[in-house]
Design brief:
- The complex is a heterodimer of chains A (290) and B (428).
- A two-stranded antiparallel sheet of chain A has the order 1-2.
- In chain A, 74% of the residues lie in helices and 1% in strands.
- Chain A has one domain: MetI-like (MetI-like fold, Orthogonal Bundle).
- Chain A is mainly α.
- The radius of gyration of chain A is 23 Å and the shape is globular.
- By secondary structure, chain B is an alpha/beta fold.
- Classes of the chains: A mainly alpha (290), B alpha/beta (428).
- Chains A and B meet through helix 11 of A and helix 3, helix 11 and helix 18 of B.
Chain lengths: 290, 428
Amino acid sequence: MINRLNLKAWLLLLPALSLLIAFTHWPTLKSFWRSFTWARSDVAPSQFVGLDNYRIMLDDPVFWKVIENNFWYALGTVPTSIGLAIMMALWVNSKIRCTSLLRLAFFTPTILPMITVANIWLFFYSPNIGLFNQLLGLVGIAGPNWLGDPDLALSSLMVMTIWKEAGFFMIFYLAALQTLSPELFDAAKLEGANAWRIFRKITFPLLMPTTLFVLINALLNAFKLVDHLFILTKGGPNNASNLLLYYIYETAFSFLDSYYAATLTVVMLLTLALIALVQILVIDRRIHYR
Amino acid sequence: MKTLTKCLTTVGVVSILGFSSAASAGTDLTMYYPVAVGGSLTKIVDGIVDKFEAQNPDINVNAIYAGNYNDARVKALAALKSGEPAQLSVLFSIDIHELRNLEAIVAFDDIVSTDAEREWLNSFYPALMENGKADGKTWGVPFQRSTIVMYYNKDMFRAAGLDPEKPPTTWEEFTSMGKKLVKKDNNGNVQQWGAMIPSTGYPYWMFGALTKQNSEVLMNQAGTETYFDKPGVIDALEYWQDLGNKHGVMPKGMIEWGTLRQNFLDQKTAIMWHSTGNLTTVKNKASFDFGVAKLPGNKELGSPTGGGNFYIFKKSSPEEKQAALKLVKFMTSPEQAAHWSKSTGYMGVGPGAYETETLKAYLKTFPPAAVARDQLTHATAELSTHDAGRVRKFLDDAIQSALTSQETAKKALTDAQKQAKSILRRYK
């Protein structure tokens, strides 16, 4: 009986499992293996080269640059968009007029595809004809070259990313807020707690499961989402806004070097796995689940 | 919407055809092609392909728009790798060495059989063949080819007291006229720039023009050596830097390739250097009187050629190769080349195109369309080496770091040369 049950379970899992193995696990293993091999071109037979690709990687200044950029990019986008998301969620959850319109407004950037958004923002950021510099021009400030200045390019990408992501995270917080029991807040008010105290002692702790979920997603996105680079900067000027995944793309499809691309991919996978692991193991323990 | 529906229908029809190809007679060809300058070029390609199919009912052509040059190469190579059919493609002319290293393409010399066909292979402008030849054979046939030309706003020339029929022809004139064309408001903020040379997208291409004007080239024909650190090359990059930093003719820092045309159309700059592929769009959209001229020179005039060539893929049957050759011959024939040139601004690929009634009449009403061709006498090949993606990026990064004042031109180019050299060593 148990065997038949087991078999049935496996059969039910089979479709999902085979897709996962074919498109996730097998390519991962293959990339891992590939990162230890090299060939002159894609048609030549590859040979085992040990850690050679990794040694080249450690000597590659662009690799270090994209790692550094990715670090700042994550640091710059993740906390801000989560903070904004919470604020927006609290606002549209309160009893004000036109909440649905407001919710829609906040959610709009999420609905738009990244490429579309990037194409619009390309013209926002454009130094002479762009919206931002024209607005600045009205008050007599000569705006900077947002995407063309190596000191500003990455920050400009971050601003757009925050604008795009915050609305998405807001939806999760909004859903979470609506499940919170109103009695808690009534009780707190009876005790004379002010709004900030209520938020700090009740709302925020109760939102922690959502925050963990959003945090993992936001951090992963900081590594996974590079669509806008294709349109806005192509990683330039001089790699000032290059990110790891875009560099992997460049290596694989512009340099046609699938071996080095595999090496970089392994680094990326390990980084992401590590981030998820730390979050789940460390932060998870401090979270109050009901 | 209509195009989308058409595309989807085509994809649907083609996949059905693909499944039943054993049953259907005739030859199916799949061709990828890129569009680098925007505009409605896909419709024009579709139109030419439709004409070809009408003339050759036994050949079905599935022309797939595949993004920019990079995307098109990625898609075509991915298709080849996965065993999907693709018999020919329009790809970046400078991909030749890599496509050969991947053993993806065949030489046209090995496919043509008749004398007429050999003559056809010799009917193109020699400057356009430079990026298509290697090891004494022709691997790429020119199709959507361009040079960089100088678009300038005649109204602004008049307003600045310059002769609108005398655009700058030397670097000195370019600098001095550029300075006169800059307009500032009372706060000293620039309202209108003298000139813009784009430094994103394809910086190495623009740089190829400046180096040629300084009588230098960036690489050898075999694509195994680069000359990034020659004094003349460094000098050219310093001039580019000076235009922004010293002379104030251009904005400092990067100038975006993608939005430059809009800057010109919005009259934010009096001059832009851009691909001739923009010509027809500029003509249709400019609300002011504009002119097109050869790029100014220093030691000589010069511009690299650019754009896409036809390649025929190795992984195809002899019948398919012949059908592909037929298609390439049709699309590069004088009549089609003339039609293509008129609709886009890309140049007619051979002298024959300019002898057709279409282009003759067009040039009479719109002389700027001849500038790209006239410039061919001064043209050089576009940067094309083995491991081209990497080598190109070394140069792009060097140019950008110099233009954003992170490095001196000399240091940036010397480093790029060192990096390129260590990579290219393997191909000698």
